[in-house]
Amino acid sequence: MALSQQDIAKIANLSKLEMTALEGEEMLTRLNGFFEIVEQMRAVDTQGIEPMAHPTHAMSEAVQAHIQLRLRDDIASEPNNREANQQSAPAVERGLFLVPKVIE
């Protein structure tokens, strides 16, 4: 799947982004490069390969027992500054930012 310059212009318009012709060309090159990688991944035969829920899913239980996840404790490290952060917002209701509808 390859995008055209018209596709980039339409995406920019829907995203409400202003883009110069040079930026559009660069974005076209980058997105088409991404789609080339996706096509290469689609070409790989994955028939009969079971999806993994986790990278260690396929390991034996004995190996998993020796792997210790290095996760930090889930502790808030900054104070709640919601009100201060929302002071510059044009519209806030019950602690949430209100934004205009953008789906056409």
Describe this protein's structure:
With 104 residues, this protein is mainly alpha-helical. The protein has a domain at 5-42: Histone, subunit A (Orthogonal Bundle). 40% of the residues lie in helices and 4% in strands. The chain has a two-stranded antiparallel sheet. A hairpin with a 2-residue loop joins strand 1 (92-93) and strand 2 (96-97).
Question: What are the SSEs and their pairings?
Answer:
Blueprint lengths: L4 H10 L6 H22 L18 H6 L15 H4 L6 E2 L2 E2 L7
Antiparallel strand pairs: 1-2
Offer a concise description of the structure.
By secondary structure, this protein is mainly alpha-helical.
Secondary structure: number of strands: 2
Task: List the total number of helices.
Answer: 4
CATH class of the domain at 5-42: Mainly Alpha
The largest sheet has its strands arranged as 1-2
Radius of gyration: 23 Å
Runs in which pLDDT lies below 50 for 5 or more consecutive residues are none
What is the global morphology?
flat
Task: Give the N-to-C terminal Cα separation.
Answer: 25 Å
- Beta fraction: under 5%
The percent range for helix content is: 40-55%
Order of helices and strands: HHHHEE
Assign the CATH topology of the domain at 5-42. Answer: Histone, subunit A
Which class best fits the helix and strand makeup? mainly alpha
Instruction: Look at the structure and give the mean pLDDT.
Output: 86
Q: Report the sheet with the most strands, covering strand number, pairing sense and barrel closure.
A: 2 strands, antiparallel
CATH architecture assignment of the domain at 5-42: Orthogonal Bundle
